[in-house]
Amino acid sequence: MKTAVKNTLMILILMLGCTSITHGQNALCLSHKENLSVIEPYDIEVTFDKTTHLLFPSGIRYVDLGSTNLVASKAEDAGNVLRVKASVQDFEQETNFSVITEDGNFYSFNVSYNSYPRVTNYSLTKTVISDRGWSSKPILFKELGTNSPNMVDELMEEIYKQNKHFIKQIGTRKFGIEFLLKGIYINDDKFYFHTQIKNLSFVSFPIDFVNFKVVDKKKAKRTVVQEVIKYPIRVYSAIDEVEGKTVSRNVFVLDQFTIADGKVLRIELHEKNGSRLQVLEIKNSHLLKSKLVKKQHTKEDLE
Questions:
Q1: Which of 77, 104, 119, 250 could form a disulfide linkage to 138, CB 3.0–4.6 angstroms apart?
Q2: In terms of residue numbers, what domain contains 246?
Q3: Is the dihedral of CA 27, 137, 133, 64 positive or negative?
Q4: What's the structural domain count of the chain?
Q5: What is the DSSP letter of 116?
Q6: Does the pLDDT of residue 221 top 70, yes or no?
Q7: 173 and 128 fall within a common domain
Q8: Is the same domain home to 176 and 281?
Q9: How far apart are CA 254 and CA 232, in angstroms?
Q10: Are residues 111 and 230 in the same domain?
Q11: How far apart are the C-alpha atoms of 258 and 287, rounded to whole Å?
Q12: Is residue 20 part of a domain?
């Protein structure tokens, strides 16, 4: 009799323990679900005979299609426009695709087929995005470290708007072009170079590319010139041409670095289909005097 009672008690204890564990797991799962931020997808329609265009607030960095029923590509000369089209006619099952933009935002789309879609052009402006009532943390890009793309873009914009000129001695003026380095800033192991191009002539100055490279300060004859290219990881604005009697400015973001003795950083501004090369030389001492730009109260920090 005692043995039967003990067995019954043991079964009851085990049942209570399992129930408690199950409730705990359910509570834990519910807690995780409550902490998840749901990104609501946009609903769009596509067809086989027409192309759907989506205009994003920033350049497109990544696209993933949910099925082979869709084809997509960035529009030529418009990095923030995506073209989407059905690759097969009358597909029945709904599919999807996702987009990551250069400002670190993530977009999700549910796609269905319609032979006669009512809308074929969509503008995903920031106003429309905020009206949807959801948000997600910006995606971090490897080259930007712990800074979000939005933060880096905001810092570049503030540097551009404030337009400070605290480096007075780095500049060149020849062939009717004035090229200046107005300031060097730093934030989270990233340099921000603020430059200005002033066209003093009536002849436009088409830009081919801008080079950043560390070179020997003095080049001896019959010696191999050693160059280390420094690639900008983000640029405030893509400037293709500086028209006559106008001024253009830009901000370039590069990974932090220092320069050894006997070397300088050269910023080369190359003219497209021309020879009006402009060159700036920056010493290591200039890099070490770069101004700090903080993540908060950006405007005050630049003053």
A1: 104
A2: 149-302
A3: negative
A4: 2
A5: S
A6: no
A7: no
A8: yes
A9: 5
A10: no
A11: 7
A12: no
Is 144 among the domain residues? no
Whole-structure pTM value: 0.69
- Domain at 199, CATH number: 2.60.40.10
Model confidence pLDDT, tens digit, residues 250-295? 999 999 999 999 999 999 999 999 999 999 999 999 999 999 987 6
The encoded tokens of residue 172 equal: 């060149």
Cβ density class 72-109: b for 16+ within 10 Å, e for less: beeeeeebbbbebbbeeeebeeebbbebbbbbbbebeb
At residue 268, what is the residue type?
E
The tokens 């700036």 sit on which residue? 280
| Residues 125 and 188 occupy one common structural domain | no
| Cβ atoms of 277 and 269 closer than 8 Å | yes
Exposed / middle / buried, residue 40 (Cβ in 10 Å: 0-12, 13-18, 19+): exposed
- DSSP per residue over 9-25, as a string? HHHHHHHHHHHHHHHHH
Query: Is 60 inside any structural domain?
Result: yes
Four-point Cα dihedral 73, 77, 80, 86, nearest 10 = -20
Is residue 183 within a helix (H) or strand (E), and if so which, with residue range?
strand 177-187
User: What's the CA gap between 78 and 60, in Å, rounded?
Assistant: 9
Q: State whether residue 164 is helix, strand or coil.
A: coil
